[in-house]
Every structure is written in C-alpha cells, then in structure tokens.
Amino acid sequence: MQSLTTLLFVILALAVAGYFLAKSRALQVAGGDIRGLVSLPSQHALNTVLSTVIPPLAAILLISLYLRLTDGNGSWFFTLVVIGLAVTGMALSLIGIKQQARARTFAERWIMGLLIFASTIAIMTTVGIVLSMLSETINFFGQYDWRRFFFSTEFTPRFQGDSELGILPLLWGTLYVSFIALSFAVPIGLFAAIYLSEYAGHRLRSVAKPAIEVLAGIPTIVYGLFALFIVGPGLRDYFAQPMGFGDSAISVMTAGLVMGIMLIPFVSSLSDDIINAVPQSMRDGSLGLGATKSETIRQVVIPAALPGIIGAGLLATSRAIGETMIVVLGAGAAAKLSLNPFEAMTTVTVKIVSQLTGDTDFASPETLVAFALGLTLFVITLGLNVFALYIVRKYREQYE
Amino acid sequence: MEDLTQMDRAMSTQQDIKISAKNVQVYYDKNHAIKDVNVEIADKTVTAFIGPSGCGKSTFLRCINRMNDTIDICRVEGDIRIDGEDIYDPKVDPVQLRAKVGMVFQKPNPFPKSIYDNVAYGPKIHGLSRNKAELDEIVEKSLRKAALWNEAKDRLDAPGTGLSGGQQQRLCIARAIATAPEVLLMDEPCSALDPIATAQVEELIDELRQSYSVVIVTHSMQQAARVSQKTAFFHLGNLVEYDDTDKIFTNPEDPRTESYISGRIG
User: Fold this and answer.
1) What is the pTM of this model?
2) d(CA B107, CA B77)
3) Which terminus, N or C, of chain A has the lesser number of Cβ atoms within 10 Å?
4) A397 band by pLDDT with thresholds 50, 70 and 90
5) Which residue has the higher pLDDT, A99 or A238?
6) From the CB of residue B178, how many other CB atoms can be counted at a distance below 10 Å?
7) How many CB pairs lie under 8 A apart between chains A and B?
8) pLDDT tens digits, B198-254
9) Residue B191: domain span
10) CATH number for position A185
C-alpha cells in the first residue's frame, strides 16, 4: 500500500513536470510567436499530462486485478512497468510537439476515453451488484424451496433452523406502507406544486420552495424518531384506541404517514419543475379562450405535464419501497399479514437488516434469505423505474 | 353614467364601431409601454397594427381581451370599450370577456389533445352545446370556417400537435372561432408559417371579416396591405397614424410612417 501511494506521487510529479516542460517546449518550437502553432501551448500541456497519467493508471488497475486473480504479490517489475509507461507517455508527447502537431485532437481522445471509463464503471457496478446478489440467492434456493419462499404466508426465522421464510407478509407490509405513504404524499405534493408554480407570487415562491425542499434534507432516522415519539403515540391516543383498532403505537399508519411527509418534497419539487416546463403559450391559449385559471390547470397544464408527474410518482414509489429506517421505528419488525392499518407490520428492507445482523451462521438459509429478499426488491424497483421511463418517453413529445 | 353608456352605445352602432380605446396607457413596472393611444376599430373589418419590434402593438392587442391581466407587473390605464361597454369595469369578468374576444397567437399552440378536443375545448367550458350532436356540429362548422375540415375530418381523434405548422395555426383559429367570439385578435399569426400556409391563413382572415371584427398584428407590411382595410402604425409606444390601409401605404401623413413604410426605419 505504501508503495502504491509513492507510485501515485511519482506519476503526479511526472505529470506536473510534463505540464511545464510541454508548455515551454511548445513556446520554444513556436519561436516565441504562438500564432505559428496549430495547437496552443496549454493544449500541448494538457495532452502531455493526460498521456503521462492515464496509461500508468490503467496499468495499475489491470495489474491489481491480475494480482487479485492469481493471488500473487506486487513486485518491483510491475512498479517499473508503471513508471516506464508514465515516462514513455510523457516523452512521446513531448517529442511530438511540433508546429503542425494537433495536440487538441489527441487530448480530446484521452478525454473521451476517460468519459467512457466513467460510464462503464457506473454500468459495471450495477451488473456486479446483481450478479453477487444472484449467486447468493441461488445458494439460498439450494437450501430452501422457492415455492415456500414465494407462497408461504409466514415469516418466522428460528435460530435452530427449520424456519418459515415466506416473502408474502413482508411484501404485503412493504406495499401497504408505500400505499399509505403515496396516497398521502402524491396529492399534497402535487397540490403544493400547482399552488407554487401557478398561483403563488414570486416572493412567496422563492421562500416556500426551498422551505419544502428542506424536508428532503432531513435524515430518515430523524423522521423515524418523529414517528416513534410523536406520530405513533398521537395516532394511538386519538384514533386507534378510541375507534377500537388496537393499542399499538407502532403501526403501518404511523410509518406510512411519516414516510409520506418524507416524500412530499420529492413529489412537489419534481412536479413543480415539470409544470413549469409546460410552455406559457399553452396557458395563454386556454386563457385566451375564456377558460379560468383552474380550468386551464385541470384541462391543459396537468394533462400536458402528466407523464412527468407520473414519473415523479413512480420515483417516489421506488423511494418508499426501499425505505428502512422509518419502518423500523414506525411500524416495527413483526412480519404480519393484516388489513388493519393500526397494527404493527414490517417490510422487506427491515427484514433484510435483521436477518443479516443476527448471529446465525452465514451459510444458513436464515441469513441467505436476505439476498433473495434484496433481489426481489431490486427486481420490483427496477421494474417500476423501467415503467416510469417508458411512460415518460412515450408521452414526452406531446407538446413542443 | 347609465345614460352616457347608452348614448355611447347608440353612437357606436351608428358608426359601426366595435372597439373604442381612449387615452390608453400601459406600464410594465416603470416602463411606459403604451402612451396615450386612442383608436376606434370598426366591426366586420380587418384592422392591422404595424410597427417595429417593441413598439407596443402586441401589448395593445393584449389589452383588448385583458390577457395582460396574467402578467403581474403590467398595469393598464384609460378606457377601452367593446360595444360601448367598459371592459376594465370591475363588474366585467375577464374570463367572460375572453370568450367574446378570441385570440390567435404568434406560435401555433394547439393543446396536447385530439383535433376534436382542441376545437371542442371552448364550447365545452362555456356550455355552448346541449348534447354531443350539437358539439359535433360546432366542431365541424368551426373547422370548415377555418378551412381545415377537409384535411382533418378523417383524423379528428389524432393529436392536434401532429399537424403541420400551417394546419396547427388554422386549428388554433378554428378553436378561437368555436366559442363564437365577436372580435378576433391575431398576434402575428403567420410569422411561424411558410409562404403557402401564410397565403391560406390570409385568405381565411379575409373570409372571417364577414362575421367578425378582426385585429391583426403583423411585421409584414405586404401582409397588412393585402388583408386589412384599416391600418394603425405604432412607434415607440405611440399610435402615430391610423387610417385606411390604402391611404397609409400610398399617402401617409406622418413622416415617421412614411419612413417606416419605405423601409428607412424599423
């Protein structure tokens, strides 16, 4: 590790040296008059820096991958290769500085390479996550019947083994909590967005919009505490007990309401942007025909913005399904299939956490079930996201 | 007051004056955009507003159906009457007014709905039909008047945004006609259209003159000469000259009009 840091410093030093060398050499080649050069000195310098840094960094990545696969150790040979690459890159680009040299286009290629690399990493990580989940999931289904996993209505893990690990009660809890959260967040968020973008004056808007967005910055654990100490007891004392729905402070309703509050800024700020993107000419057209403001909003603005609003809703749904902390503190950790919203239930994410943090053997189905749960959840949110993209694309060109 | 209004109305019918504006001032915040404009616009005539960009002709047009109400910083002073009725009277509902004074905009702006729903939008809002059959009839009549029926009759359910630019603009005209307005305001209706579509729309404007008072803002002096009977020349927020189109284009009184017409300013 020590040697790697040193190595990186050496490369960095070479790059800095290359920068100044290239600049002065370019000036020298130009004979003091940069108008004679095809590329500017700074462009030569950029090209030199990139050619000094990128090949050795790529080599370090490849070598460490190779060492990991072969269980070998780093040796002076690899160090030499890396430094050699850096020096060669620098030397070649320095020699290449001539009046007619097109350093701009060379640098462009290096930059394009970097950008491709960045996007590849983003895609490969997703693939890697899926693959690692997949292998553990296959492992799990080797030990546990998949029909029992998908169709059993009980989730009761035991330390001794022979547990019932059905996903249905967890999935039910997830959908129930998300449903309550969304039926709370979508109307409120949407109405707030409509008010802010269509009715509110400039000054109010410039205060209210950031204020709503502050909600998005609150850590979910804080929402969880809010659910546990205020919303939960409040719902129990004023609704559940008087109406005879039970006497549990932690309930689906508690988690759903608080999660809904968390989602309001999501829905409102996305919808607000989308509503603002509807061309003013559309509103003028409707107002010019003698429609009132609310008729215009209901019949022209909202339909035009609908694909985006649906997209915002689906994005919020993905958030709701993946939320853990609010559920742990608001709805509890008891897997249950029930219709009563004032009863404690739990979701897939909560059970993933509790199955992985127990002290059962890692190879046991009780632990591995977390991967199967995770993969199922991933497939559901992925499906939702794909659906959201499809909707947005399908209706995108409705106006313009 | 009552008497005055009635007298006014009697006079306007006599001279067939549809819109009369007196001492109209418009301010955008502190910017004085329209300065003391007086104009009388006749019924069943095409009146053209010409002038260089930023001279206030569109702003004045938007005063006639109170579209400027939708701009927060805009303030209108003075007296604008349609059929003798003060349209800035607090008793007047701007929403009702806009149903009576239709508007067609610079860029075609069909709603992202079907062609049928675009035209039926106004009649539905104002309850102009008793049943579906009547609504169908209004839609057909409006599309026919806008010379779009033959092109659109087989695709009434297709989105209005799928039409070509010229067809879209005629759809917007049909949409404005469908609410049975008395005045039709057109804000550079042909500036986004090619010459062929422009010719079609101009022909249409000439036909619309039979039933409506049409006010058109245009940048093209040839267009003003072709379609209008009366022309008003605006310059820097002032109404410089207002007369018969023939007179304006052949024998203008004001030197500014003369230089604009001949292409020396603007």
Assistant:
1) 0.78
2) 28
3) N
4) low
5) A238
6) 28
7) 75
8) 898 899 899 889 888 999 999 888 899 999 999 999 999 999 999 999 999 999 999
9) 17-261
10) 1.10.3720.10
